[in-house]
Amino acid sequence: MRWVGFAQKVFISFLLLVVICFYENRALPNTANQSYCLSDAYNTSKMCSVRGSLLSQSIWNHYTGFFCYNYTNDARFNKKLKYNLNFSFNCKGYTLKLPVAIVNESTIAMYDYGDSESVNLLKNSFKTEKMFDNYLKCCRDAEYCCANSMNDENLALSTTYCPVVWDAWSCFPRTPVNTVAALPCSSQAYQSPDKVCTLESKKECIWNGTLALWNQQTNYTACAIAPVYLRRYNYHVVALIVCIAWSLPAIIIFLSIPTFRETTRVILHRNLLIAIVVRNILTITSRKTIIIDALLSPSLSNHLMEKNTVLCRILSFFGSAATSSTYACMLVDGYYLHKMIVRTFAKEPQVINLYIVVAVLTFLPSLIWATIVGVNERTSCWTVDSHGEQWAVDSFRVIILLINTFLLLDIIRVMISKMKQGGTTRQTKAAFRATLFLIPLFGLHIFITAKKVVINDTCVAEDIYDYFRYTMEASQGVFVALLFCYANTEVHNELKNAFRKLSIHLNQRYGWNIGPKTKSRRRTTTATYVQSRDSRSDF
Ligand SMILES: *[C@@H]1O[C@H](CO)[C@@H](O)[C@H](O)[C@H]1NC(C)=O
Ligand SMILES: *[C@@H]1O[C@H](CO)[C@@H](O)[C@H](O)[C@H]1NC(C)=O
Ligand SMILES: *[C@@H]1O[C@H](CO)[C@@H](O)[C@H](O)[C@H]1NC(C)=O
Ligand SMILES: *[C@@H]1O[C@H](CO)[C@@H](O)[C@H](O)[C@H]1NC(C)=O
Ligand SMILES: *[C@@H]1O[C@H](CO)[C@@H](O)[C@H](O)[C@H]1NC(C)=O
Ligand SMILES: *[C@@H]1O[C@H](CO)[C@@H](O)[C@H](O)[C@H]1NC(C)=O
Ligand SMILES: *[C@@H]1O[C@H](CO)[C@@H](O)[C@H](O)[C@H]1NC(C)=O
Hints:
By secondary structure, the protein is an alpha+beta fold. The chain has 4 domains: 22-131, no CATH class; 154-223, Irregular (Hormone receptor fold), CATH 4.10.1240.10; 226-412 and 445-476, Rhopdopsin 7-helix transmembrane proteins, CATH 1.20.1070.10; 496-535, no CATH class. Helices cover 59% and strands 12% of the residues. The chain has helices at residues 2-24, 57-70, 116-123, 129-149, 152-155, 226-256, 258-262, 264-295, 304-307, 310-342, 351-375, 391-422, 425-442, 446-450, 459-486, 489-510, 518-523, 526-534; strands at 28-29, 34-35, 47-50, 53-56, 82-91, 94-104, 107-110, 161-162, 165-166, 171-172, 175-176, 179-184, 200-207, 212-214. A 5-stranded mixed sheet has the order 1-7-6-5-2. It has a 3-stranded antiparallel sheet with strand order 12-13-14, with no helix packed on it. β13 and β14 (212-214) form a beta hairpin. The longest helix has 33 residues, at 310-342. The protein is elongated. The model is unreliable at 15-25 and 518-539 (pLDDT under 50). The structure holds 2-acetamido-2-deoxy-beta-D-glucopyranose (7 copies).
């Protein structure tokens, strides 16, 4: 009886093998006239319109799947599969022609996204899962458009309306003749499927003399997101350049006048300005060479972001450190002013200690961040924060801003209490002005733009936010230089003195007469210097 059991086992194994072969090996061979029938889940007599031709709902998914695939941006493919539009199948004796993808000389794939084996074959040709999902979404949208947006009435040609149409990406509704229909751009229109602000594609309904007909070509030029980003980044660069040009003279003044080189308060303001200028230079370099470059057309671009070179990662690291250094300088500036104003009798902090704090806060957060992104082998020159690692540096920055907020509130508290003791409106005004002065110094303006606020998801709304943010970023340096240098009486006096000295020197040496005449010469005494050295302006 043993051989019976053995035969049973063989038979079951054979059955299993057949079943496995049947289910596992469903990839269609690349041979004509093989047996294949359409899914009967669809209504054969229902017609739908794609790019000007009417197709039965039962073959709709095959064709729209093909269009979704064929019109997917080439940048999303590993290797785009070739196609055959007239591949012959045999369904119960009838010839059926369908578009198919040629996987290799022995295998084909259907474009119908309901066919799981074919879908897997197509999936391999996409670069990422996300890009493939985007393709599937296109297929589903097409199916939905046919099933829910199209019927015999709105598909009929007429003299007054263009019929509903699937243009391969979007489902354009019935539209009056000589008007333009606009729809949010399909994400198929972008190079990458990431969510971006909404731009609109446009399709014209025109009068051809007898009928209202669509312009076959939908205008997707407005869907190009790169020009939108380019405008923003170029604006950012220009704003930062203006900030540098405006801050540099102030730094030179602070560095060249001996009194200022010794006053801690001025040293701290100067260092903040220097940090801002360095940050601006690094930000501009990174924007120009990596980010703006990546948006340019392939022939113009240096592809630095794709290459992810060591140099560009080092640039990102120092860019991050330079940004942290502006925060560190703001913290030290805030701490010092708080100490001078609130705790009037505290002794001056050692400048060297302040420098140490700035150095630590400059490099520590960026080192932590660089270690994390380095270990995880992030690409794109570390400029794209897709995994939230930016928090390694941002947390330090947020803490600094919170400390500075506290310090500023404490300064205001002390000012108000001083005002109450013998308050006049003039003092109130001075206190108010001082508070406003301190906001850019303490970095609190950053709170205004910290949360991304856009009223809707159009690109214009996002533009407004970004332009405002970049303007605020650049204005910090401008305001610090203006308030603490160009508009400061102490600086004016020092500059006048320097100018007087220079004119005396030139007069004695060469006999030149420049600047204010006799008056200035008479007043140039050592007493003037002593006096100006002791005069303290607001801050
Ligand atoms: C497939 O069938 C069509 C129509 O029946 C015929 O014209 C064609 O020659 C066939 N092709 C092959 C390879 O058998
Ligand atoms: C199939 O489509 C035709 C034309 O749109 C329609 O008249 C018919 O009712 C549909 N049949 C089913 C079962 O939905
Ligand atoms: C497929 O796409 C290419 C461009 O990507 C186009 O030239 C070609 O006409 C398309 N094929 C069909 C059948 O639409
Ligand atoms: C596919 O067949 C149609 C008619 O059935 C024909 O007009 C078209 O030229 C064919 N296309 C190709 C690529 O063979
Ligand atoms: C063709 O592709 C199929 C599916 O990826 C694979 O199983 C098969 O080995 C390939 N054949 C050749 C000759 O490359
Ligand atoms: C307008 O388009 C229709 C349908 O394609 C065509 O039959 C007709 O001849 C066209 N009229 C003119 C004036 O071109
Ligand atoms: C497409 O639209 C843009 C503006 O949105 C326009 O400048 C361009 O001329 C249009 N292209 C065509 C072919 O109509």
